[in-house]
């Protein structure tokens, strides 16, 4: 089978890996002119972790992972007000938790692509003609005839728009930003922690990167989903006055082109595919950073799709992929929406309640609850697929 995948992010790279390893011809199109270095830290666990393990990618991902001991909440003077122990959380899920910068995860996926994958940076899909026997994919500079087109082009998917028209996102009431900067004194004070401001309505957090730089993560409430024209100015305005190291971080905020900035949103679609075109990852089931598992679901969803395509004809495979994977993605979307209120406290009272909740999170019973919530159906699904095709070649082998 010949497949065109639009979008070489986490889901697209995983699908390209898997489809190629299963003997398919793969053309992978990425709009960006080359690999991106911007990004944010991802907590990687759950089904994506299982799928990465099943593909033999876990050792390479572990090599680029960071050690994070705890998330610390700090007041405007840098005094600790609360914390969550990552080690405790990791223990609750048998250590199957990694902290990885998104560009590092993409690099591992890219470096493990089989050489047969036709990977084209600086290219996007401009037209789709599904004529029943195949799909003609128009792109800048020509067209490709294929058996399948997959849109793995993220929450603002072009393939989704070409397939279903303009469908509004479900805005969750936040904007988020991420950037990196040099600040040796901040780097040294953070160490192996994720340090966050303990604040109402807006929050910044910091990680120390191994190259000596600091990765900043920011999120704030706002009723308007519109992307600001000047991202750097918007970030400096939104987080001004938070105290601690925030003024220094805002001073060193890079130009807009080097800042990741987006609204926090989900997408819900009546169908994930039509004919010989299908979507995967954030393009059809973005859960948002509030659910904290989008990358994991991108990898696992691509794994499930590739396996279905190996088992049956295209349209039946697409239907089965959606039947198996939609309930799992929808459950995570629900979790994300339910957490919106507590993700970022709206008042001092909520802030205080969060402190109490963090203390309760140290109880063993909560550990068992967390582990139960993270395992379950989706983990079993990936393991069953892996076992059913244990003869398949490993990606890294
Ligand atoms: C601040 C933040 C923190 C997060 N934290 C976590 C976390 O802790 N754990 C977790 O699991 N997830 C987390 N996520 C979510 C996770 O990053 C996403 O869900 C995940 O990246 C989705 O992967 P994807 O491949 O579907 O889409 P993307 O990663 O968005 O990739 C889409 C790719 O398609 C390309 N593209 C877009 N349009 C086109 C086009 N027209 N033509 C060609 N290419 C195109 C893009 O350039 C990009 O390379 C977080 C997200 C944010 C914003």
TrEMBL record:
An example molecular function term from Gene Ontology annotations: monooxygenase activity
SUPFAM superfamilies: FAD/NAD(P)-binding domain
Domain FAD-binding: 2-312
Keywords attached to this entry: Monooxygenase, Oxidoreductase
Top-level taxon of origin: Bacteria
Alphabetical list of InterPro entries matching this protein: FAD-bd (IPR002938), FAD/NAD-bd_sf (IPR036188), FAD_aromatic-hydroxylase (IPR051704)
UniProt name for this protein: FAD-dependent monooxygenase
Source organism (scientific name): Kutzneria chonburiensis
Taxonomic classification: Bacteria, Bacillati, Actinomycetota, Actinomycetes, Pseudonocardiales
């Amino acid at each position: 089978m010949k497949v065109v995948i639009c979008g070489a992010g986490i889901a697209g790279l995983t699908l390209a890996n898997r489809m190629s390893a299963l003997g398919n011809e793969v053309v992978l199109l990425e709009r960006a002119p080359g690999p991106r270095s911007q990004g944010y830290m991802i907590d990687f666990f759950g089904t994506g972790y299982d799928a990465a393990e099943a593909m033999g990618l876990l050792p390479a991902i572990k090599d680029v992972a960071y050690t994070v001991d705890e998330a610390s909440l700090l007041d405007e003077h840098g005094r600790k007000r609360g914390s969550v122990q990552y080690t405790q959380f990791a223990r609750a899920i048998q250590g199957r938790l990694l902290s990885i910068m998104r560009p590092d995860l993409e690099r591992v996926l890219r470096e493990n692509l089989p050489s047969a994958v036709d990977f084209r940076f600086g290219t996007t899909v401009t037209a789709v003609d599904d004529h029943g026997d195949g799909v003609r994919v128009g792109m800048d500079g020509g067209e490709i005839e294929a058996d399948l087109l997959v849109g793995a082009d993220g929450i603002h998917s072009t393939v989704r728009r070409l397939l279903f028209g303009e469908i509004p996102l479900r805005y969750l009431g936040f904007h988020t930003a991420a950037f990196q900067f040099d600040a040796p004194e901040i780097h040294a004070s953070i160490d192996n922690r994720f340090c966050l401001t303990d604040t109402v309505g807006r929050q910044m957090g910091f990680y120390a990167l191994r190259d000596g730089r600091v990765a900043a993560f920011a999120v704030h409430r706002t009723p308007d989903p519109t992307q600001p024209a000047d991202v750097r100015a918007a970030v400096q305005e939104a987080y001004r006055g938070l105290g601690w190291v925030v003024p220094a971080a805002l001073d060193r905020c890079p130009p807009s082109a080097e800042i990741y900035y987006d609204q926090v949103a989900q997408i819900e679609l009546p169908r994930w595919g039509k004919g010989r075109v299908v979507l995967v990852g954030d393009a059809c089931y973005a859960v948002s950073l509030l659910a904290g598992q989008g990358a994991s679901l991108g990898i696992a969803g691509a794994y499930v799709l590739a396996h279905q395509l190996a088992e049956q004809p295209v349209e039946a495979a697409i239907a089965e992929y959606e039947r198996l994977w939609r309930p799992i993605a929808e459950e995570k979307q629900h979790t994300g929406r339910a957490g919106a209120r507590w993700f970022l406290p709206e008042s001092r009272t909520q802030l205080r309640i969060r402190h109490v909740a963090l203390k309760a999170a140290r109880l063993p019973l909560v550990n068992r609850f967390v582990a139960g919530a993270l395992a379950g159906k989706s983990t079993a699904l990936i393991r069953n697929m892996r076992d059913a095709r244990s003869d398949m070649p490993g990606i890294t082998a």
